[in-house]
Amino acid sequence: MIRRTLQFIPVFFGATFLIFAMVFALPGDPIRALAGERPQSESVNQALRAEYNLDDPLIVQYGKYIGGVLQGDFGTDFRGRDVNEIMKDRIPRTAKLALLAFGFEIVLGLSAGVLAGLRQKGFADSLVLITTLTVISIPIFVLGYMAQIYLGLELGWFPVAGIQQGWKSYLLPAMVLGSVSLAYVARLTRASLAENLRADYVRTATAKGLSRRRVVGVHTLRNSMIPVITYLGVDLGALMGGAIVTESVFNIPGLGGLVFDSIVRQEGTVVVGVTTFLVIIYMLTNLMVDLLYAVLDPRIRYD
Amino acid sequence: MTVTEPVPETIAASDVPLLEVVDLHVGFRTDAGTVNAVNGLNYKVDGGETLAILGESGSGKSVNAQAVMGIIDSPPGFIPKGEVLYRGTDLLKLPDDERRRIRGNEIAMVFQDALTALNPVFNVGWQIGEMFRQHKGMSKKKATAKAVELMDRVGIPGAADRVHAYPHELSGGMRQRIMIAMAIALDPDVLIADEPTTALDVTVQAQIMDLLAELQADTGMGLILITHDLGVVAEVADRVVVMYAGREVEKAPIDELFAAPRHPYTEGLMQSIPRPDQVTRRLDPIRGAPPDLLRIPPGCAFHPRCPYAKDRCRTETPALRTISTDPLRSTACHFAEELYS
Questions:
Q1: Is B136 helix (H, G, I), strand (E, B) or coil?
Q2: Interchain CB contact of B119 with A (< 8 Å)
Q3: DSSP codes of every residue in B110-133
Q4: Closest Cα in chain A to B134
Q5: Mutation for testing the B interface, residue in A125, A195, A197, A201 having most B CBs under 10 Å
Q6: Residue B309 CB contacts under 8 Å (≥ 6 apart), including other chains
Q7: At residue B11, does pLDDT exceed 70?
Q8: Which of A234, A289, B256, B298 has its CA 20 to 30 A from that of A179?
Q9: A20 domain-assigned
Q10: Is A90 within 8 Å of A163 (Cβ atoms)?
């Protein structure tokens, strides 16, 4: 367990360093970009460069930055704004969106998968296979616009865009964001359940005279969940970071939009700040999955 | 639910056999056609008796056991014909719910490979205790105590410490003992052991067979032992049914079967065992391979491999019949008298 946690240290430094180096390697001079079309004196440039440690070698810059991050300080951007402050408003929005999407994914994905897996080649199975394949094949922005037009405008069930209506405004974007993962979860659950239903221990459980409900619900489901949990854990991190398209289609000012804007404006500190934050989230969800894994499957032990 | 615990003597004394299989057929629908796994099987087992069902892979011996238990996957499996009479009641006609109560409770089964047959994510005490919790409504604590008792009974040393062990933490022999403990938990009247020792090494095999024999002597249950191993059969069985292509080809009391086979297939099986008293003799395996169950040969299913096959064997399916000279035995060979007299 402790060893498992310690493994995160190199992963953390490796990932953040890579991001930092890639942003460092972006073409263009951020200080010059700051001035835009206006001329800017060399002395001002020098002062700014010094303030942001831009003349230090990459590794020193990284060291100074990561030192701040470890104390919870993500630095300031080139316009002097606190990156912590910028992220503070946006994190809850993205988190809300991701968690709602995650909820859809678990509830609908698992139920569809179980329904399909129990009766392979039945009606429910074919329905799930076809709809999930359709969802997986359609690009997410198309899904987003379609949802806006039909569910938002025509039927008027959900707010179309923006976040003015609180939780309600997040429902439609969360469904769209979660739809692809939902389809994968349904397929994964289906395949895993169908495979486990053929296992010897399921036959034993039946031979013990247990009810079908117990054979499936207790003996088979727990084994079938092992690969699904792995996927879900990785996906929660991906949902947090991968909402760029959905956030822009539905006009939600979250982390995805922030990263996109910051890349365009060459605000390296913000890009690195957000991605570092996401790396931490990713690692935490993975740690949780690993722990859950050991609970679900006693053959896996961290000692 | 009421659970009857009959005294062994009354089982044996009753007129109705404890378990009787009559003209059982089992098929599986596949894309290539119907696989006829069992094609008219008949046998009886009484309390305290051990019946061995002997056959190669694909002879239908395991499918038969699953049909008796009612655990055939359906679809693709189906039972077009036949009866499985438990104390005179046809199990195949019982509603699912009543059938389920008999499973594990009155007819129990031990499977071949205990590593895959036990659930990997629950500890063994939980899995044994489940029998008591589900069939008898016992509390978790009492069920675990019962599990320890049973583990002790099947010879697991330090049962109280191992009750919380997971299957992968035990050795193959221990796992099979757990499997047996689970099967005998509710004192079943019939125990079906499907190749219980195949996955084990030889010394452990003998221990497991001894355990089964001992448990049977204690409880008076009927034991159906399904195996391809003539050695195992010789040690414990009272009577033997030899199966080939889903049919019985010979039935006999164990000693008589070993003394003199009455079917060319049984004869072939005997000749393919190595015998220490005949070191120089070459092993004489049966020619050819078991038939494809999608296309069982017409006539006697064994005729393509039989050294004595005649024209009649290719067209006329031999029925199982009593041998005139030996009323205790029966064979499904047209020429048994000519060949073995």
A1: helix
A2: yes
A3: E-S-HHHHS-TTS-HHHHHHHHHH
A4: A210
A5: A201
A6: B300, B303
A7: no
A8: A289
A9: no
A10: no
The alpha carbon dihedral of B317, B323, B328, B329 has a sign of negative
Number of domains in chain A: 1
Residues 6+ apart with CB under 8 A from A110: A185, A186, A189, A228
Residue type for B326, please? Answer: D
Beta strand B33-45 with B247-253 is unpaired
The ipTM is: 0.85
pLDDT tens digits along B260-315: 888 999 988 888 777 777 666 677 778 888 888 888 888 899 999 988 888 889 98
**Dist CA B273 CA A184 (whole Å):** 53
| Contact yes or no for A205 and B117 at CB 8 A | no
The CATH 3.40.50.300 portion of chain B extends over: 15-237
B170 part of contact set with chain A, CB < 8 Å: no
Token code pair at residue A6: 């310690």
CA angle B94, B184, B3 (to 5 degrees): 50
Q: How far apart are CA A128 and CA A112, in angstroms?
A: 7
The answer as to whether A216 is a domain residue is yes
**CATH of B15-237 given 1.10.10.10, 3.40.50.300, 3.30.420.40, 3.90.180.10:** 3.40.50.300
pLDDT tens-digit series, residues A220-243: 998 898 889 888 888 887 887 767
Contact: A209, B135; criterion CB under 8 Å = yes
CATH number, position A105? 1.10.3720.10
User: Which amino acid type is present at position A205?
Assistant: A
**What is the C-alpha separation between A87 and A288, in angstroms, rounded?**
24
Q: For chain B, give percent helix, strand, coil, nearest 5.
A: 40, 25, 40
Given a contact cutoff of 8 angstroms between Cβ atoms, the answer to whether A207 and B108 are in contact is yes
Residues in chain A: 303
CB contact under 8 A, B104 and A205: no
Nearest C-alpha in B relative to A221: B121
- Residue A144 resides in a domain: yes
